[in-house]
Structures are given as C-alpha cells and as structure tokens.
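Progress note, sequence design subtask.
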C-alpha cells in the first residue's frame, strides 16, 4: 500500500495507528440464530470475517493482529460445535500456508497446542516454520488459549530454567519472553464485538495498557468500516501510561 493511502486511512495529522490490534471474536452464535441457522454457520462466516479483517489490517499498515478463536473454556461447548470450529481452523490454517508464502506474512498460534489434534498440531508447526522466513504482517490465532493458563505455563518454564541455572532474576521483560507472545509488542487496541464488556481471560498480561473498544456489532458483521471506527476511537484516546500530561 502506498504511503499516501496509509495517511488517508489514519486521517490528516492523526495520532499513530495501533501497531498491534487484538480482537475477541464474539457473536457468531447469535448472528446465526437471528437468521434461523445453526450456530456452526455463524462460525463459518466468522472465519471469513477474520480473513477479511486480517487483510484490512495488513493493508492499513497494522503490524500485528491477534484473535481469540478458541479458549481453554470453549471445550465445554457441544461436541459438534467444537468439531466444526476445529475443522474450520484446520481448513483455515491449511489455506493460510499458500497466502503466507505468497504475501510473506507470518502466522502464529498462541495457546496450549498439545490438546489439539495431530493434524492441527502439524499445521501449527508448518505455519511456525514458514513464519521464521518472513518479516511482514503477523496474525496470531489464540487456540486452546487462556490468559491465566499462558501465565502459568510461562511461570513453570521460567522456574525450570531458573533451577537449571539458565535464567536470571525475574523482570517484566524476562517474564514476557516466556509468554506465547514473546518478542511481539503488547496490543495497543483490544476490540470486543458482540456486546459484552469483559476481557474473558484474553491476553491478561499483555493488555495491561491496551485501549479497550466495545461494540454491539456481532463478529460476522464486523467489516472494514467498523475496524476504521475502532481505530479512529483509539487515535482519539490519550495514552498516558500513568504519567500526567
Ligand atoms: C464466539 O462466538 C466465537 C467462537 C468461540 C469461535 C470462533 C471461531 C471461529 C470464527 C472459527 C475459525 C476462526 C479463525 C480465526 C479462522 P460465540 O459462539 O460465542 O457467539 P455467541 O456469543 O453469539 O454465542
């Protein structure tokens, strides 16, 4: 995208764009129910929406997009719904491999991947490997992810390294390097569509200074216009990080 286009999106003399946007995908089930469709139809449209919004973020010069697709608690859903979501994720990751190679983009999965099927784990390994080759836009999909679980996994790994004498005194920076998000900046903007106003165990450590944006729009209806609205609200915020003006 040309620089002039980027400026147009951000607005004349606007505040900087968020480097990293995080989104809690919510409202797929209600979107489907409103149309008399099974909940799983909402997830299929939701996966397409993710594809569109990831492309829109990339085109606007956003560097990182992290989405909450399946939480550690989502296993409690009916078996056929979980099965459909896993199938959609498998199809998505499979198709993403070509896009990653073509557009030189990176895609990572955050979460405890050990509980996923061997097929999904193989796709995650493949997308991880491809990601090491490129430096462009990075999409992160949170799968079997919970913020508390991530912190516990990180703490366990740090404790092991410390015991083995290969980790120094714990600092915020060092601890961050044990998280699934190691090496990437914290989200600047957290978007939650679907009408709820809570964080639901998403990126608990990383969202310490994120700006929150809530909207009633259901995820399958979330489009570029909604994305630009959220970015504009973000740009109007005064981020002080505890300082005074
Ligand atoms: C939340 O809506 C959605 C989910 C828990 C699943 C999201 C999964 C996908 C869109 C599938 C593929 C994803 C990617 C990133 C390729 P909900 O079911 O909680 O909706 P409701 O609150 O209206 O019931």
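Output:
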């Amino acid at each position: 995208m040309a620089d002039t286009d980027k400026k147009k999106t951000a607005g004349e003399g606007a505040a900087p764009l968020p480097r990293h946007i995080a989104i809690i995908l919510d409202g797929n089930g209600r979107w489907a129910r409103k149309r008399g469709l099974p909940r799983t139809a909402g997830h299929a449209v939701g996966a397409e929406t993710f594809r569109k919004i990831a492309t829109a973020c990339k085109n606007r010069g956003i560097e990182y997009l992290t989405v909450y697709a399946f939480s550690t608690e989502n296993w409690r859903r009916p078996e056929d719904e979980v099965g459909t979501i896993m199938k959609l994720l498998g199809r998505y990751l499979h198709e993403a491999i070509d896009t990653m190679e073509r557009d030189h983009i990176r895609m990572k999965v955050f979460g405890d991947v050990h509980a996923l099927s061997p097929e999904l784990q193989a796709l995650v390994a493949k997308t991880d490997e491809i990601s090491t080759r490129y430096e462009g836009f990075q999409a992160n999909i949170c799968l079997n992810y919970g913020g508390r679980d991530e912190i516990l996994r990180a703490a366990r790994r740090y404790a092991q390294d410390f015991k083995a004498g290969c980790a120094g005194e714990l600092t915020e920076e060092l601890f961050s390097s044990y998280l699934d998000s190691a090496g990437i900046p914290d989200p600047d903007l957290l978007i939650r569509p679907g009408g709820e106003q809570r964080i639901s165990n998403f990126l608990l450590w990383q969202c310490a200074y994120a700006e929150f944006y809530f909207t009633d729009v259901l995820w399958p209806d979330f489009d570029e216009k909604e994305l630009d609205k959220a970015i504009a609200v973000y740009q109007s915020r005064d981020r002080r990080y505890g300082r005074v003006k």
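The chain has a mean pLDDT of 92. Work on this subtask will continue into the next period as scheduled.
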